[in-house]
Amino acid sequence: MSFLSRRRGGARRGRGDSETGKTSTPSPSPTAVALPDIELSTDKPPLLTVSPAEPAAHWTAAHRGALRAAVAEHGSLLVRGLGLRDAAETGAVFHEVADTLTAEREAFAPRRTYADGVHSSTSWPSNQPMCMHHESSYALEFPGLLLFACLQAAERGGATGIADAEAVHAALPREVTERFEREGWLLTRAYHDEIGASVAEAFGTADRTVVEAYCRAHAIEFAWQPDGSLHTRQRRAAVLRHPVTGRRCWFNQIAFLSEWTMDPEVREYLVDLYGPAGLPFNTRYGGGDPIGADVVATLNEVYERHTVPTPWRPGDLLLVDNIRCAHSREPFEGPREVLVGLADPVRPPRSPAQDSDTKDEVSFR
Question: How far apart are CA 244 and CA 249, in angstroms?
Answer without folding.
Answer: 12
